[in-house]
Amino acid sequence: xVQQITNDNFQELVSGNKPLLIDFWAEWCGPCRMVGxxxxxxxxxxxxxxxxxxxxxxENDELASEFGILSIxxxxxxxxxxxxxxxxxxASKSLIETKLKGLL
Length: 104
What we know:
Order of helices and strands: EHEHEHEEH
Strand order of the largest sheet: 1-3-2-4-5
Radius of gyration: 12 Å
Number of helices: 4
Shape: globular
Distance between the termini: 18 Å
Helix content: 25-40%
Strand content: 25-35%
Largest sheet: 5 strands, mixed
Oligomer: single chain
Structural class: alpha/beta
């Protein structure tokens, strides 16, 4: 299940014991609408191993600013509270899944 990540719950999620994938997106973003369903699928497939969340950059601009998000969609991959990988722009499910598996 995809978690909605906000300025308020980010710290709690990133400091958990599971790796974290965050999708930075906005409703008006065409490529975000292409990547969103892929992120949703991967959230279901890896629910026991990884926390998957989404940050609406329009509503949580502090987080977008903190991580220097200039283009969306941007996917950040966290392990042990640190960013270990990043994808900017629309990406295929296989590429996202390969990077996700790298967290495990």
